[in-house]
Amino acid sequence: MNHFAPIGDLPQSFRDEQRQLSAEGITTWEALRSLSDLELSRMARSGRATARNLKRLRGMADLVCCLNLAPADAALLMH
Fold first, then answer.
1. In the chain, at which end, N or C, are there fewer CB atoms within 10 A of the end residue's CB?
2. Predicted pLDDT of residue 47
């Protein structure tokens, strides 16, 4: 998987987080991976997204970018 590939559709459990990321202009796995804890917390405070789910998505982004996994495989590993 390309680091700069678009995040695409996420599972329904992440719909609020996907909306928040899109609103912030975060559209690629690499951009999501590079967010700091402070940035994730700020996003969680400003919308319906939760810090927990945003951190899970950042973990998935790490797997997608570093191990070249497909997003679905990264999601399975996060469980």
1. C
2. 85
